[in-house]
Amino acid sequence: MTSSRTAHVFLWTLPRSVSTAFTRSMESIDNVAIYLEPYGCAEHFGPEGRLIPKDTSPTEMEYTYDKVKASLEDKSLENKCVFVKDMGYAVHKRYDKIAKGYKHSFLIRHPIKSFLSYYNMMVSTGADDVDGNFISWLPEGLGYQELWELYCYIENENGKKPFVVNSEDLLNDPQQVLKQYCEAVGFEYNDGLLNWDSKPKVKWNMAQAVWDLEPIYNWFSNSLTAGGFKKGLSKPLPSIEELPKIVQECVRKSMPYYEKLNACC
Q1: I need a surface site. Which of 83, 93, 102, 243 has the fewest CB within 10 A?
Q2: pTM as predicted
Q3: Phi, psi for residue 118 in degrees, rounded to 5
Q4: CA-to-CA separations, 235 to 76, 169, 255, in angstroms, rounded
């Protein structure tokens, strides 16, 4: 198994998939450097972004795909453990920009829970056009198609299946899942991964633009202060008929790709 002192790992995921909590967990890995969505920032806020918010201009001019790749391949990281959490859709059809020397893992969540959480987040902003805002942040394949295609690309490139975590399994039995995850990617598991304080143990490498929008979207707040994973946190799946119409549409379009990814867990 690769030493956790030098293991470099990508966690590719989707919005509202418990990924921020997962990242907080990784703060307990010894000698770790954490990067939060550098490619996602390039996609949403950088000069080459395809999903720059409507009626806005790029605000993170340093976040080009080449610069993100170079920063993750920097020699200063050679003797560190590196954990990068990012959105799979951010590198869609830009696979040549993915940093080399990393193991790849995936985190998924049932589309009903992911999209409903996303929709509720948009409602909480008080925006007039919730449906419009909902779609504006998402890629054409709504994230699930892009994540599946990235999985297929990684499997083909490496000749083996990447490790996939379903957030429901993580919430139901965090200790077991995190042990399996660490074994798969080359990290050394410790029980500190299950708990965290409100103050981060490690400073995250992330763009200012992401923090600037936190007061509006609160996309990190719950995970940052949750305190940790506790066994049995998963909640029952609501019926699709109970969901807002746009959420139903996104769920139905995404389910085939979710099922393929879930079969790889």
Answers
A1: 93
A2: 0.93
A3: -65, -45
A4: 42, 11, 19
pLDDT, tens only, 105-148: 999 999 999 999 889 888 877 777 777 777 788 999 999 999 99
> What's the Cα-to-Cα distance from 218 to each of 54, 103, 114, 160, 224, rounded to whole Å?
19, 30, 15, 37, 10
Alpha-carbon span 64 to 49, nearest angstrom: 8
Distances (CA, A) of 199 to 11, 83, 174, 216, 225: 22, 19, 21, 21, 8
- Where does 8-262 sit in CATH, by number? 3.40.50.300
**What is the token pair recorded at 137?**
């942040």
> What residue has token string 């867990």?
265
Judge whether 258 and 108 are in contact, CB under 8 Å: yes
* Structure token pair of residue 158: 């490496």
